[in-house]
Amino acid sequence: xxxxxxxxxxxxxxxxxxxxxxxxxxxxxxxxxxxxxxxxxxxxxxxxxxxxxxxxxxxxxxxxxxxxxxxxxxxxxxxxxxxxxxxxxxxxxxxxxxxxxxxxxxxxxxxxxxxxxxxxxxxxxxxxxxxxxxxxxxxxxxxxxxxxxxxxxxxxxxxxxxxxxxxxxxxxxxxxxxxx
Length: 180
Hints:
Structural class: mainly alpha
Mean pLDDT: 90
């Protein structure tokens, strides 16, 4: 969990991180729901010997919620996967430079493209009231697709926060790292 400094006035990256983390804390409960759905699916399928199409679709919906909303949270807490074996051998300044380059040339363009492309994708899904192709499936596929621009918008916010923080640290202004 991100330890945002409580001793000084929060700076812009801290405020951005705090907003993303509040949203992340809310959506992290989707993982608890997912675990419950998995247990229910196992019970219904193997003990009661019943079909579980709706439960199966709910499982992937909640997995998508946890994953998509967790991306931005992981960036704010610096708990995402990285190349730590190589990175740890580099100086702090080199690490910051690599982070800045990665954010500018990889993360932000990727997140911006997905965000932009998902808008029409979600709009079309809403217009037709998209539902599962399965007769017994869930009637609201449009709802889960709606999380795409939201989650990638949050990812852009968290990437910008990280970028501002890294640039400040590299320039010697010493904005709090924000991560553990």
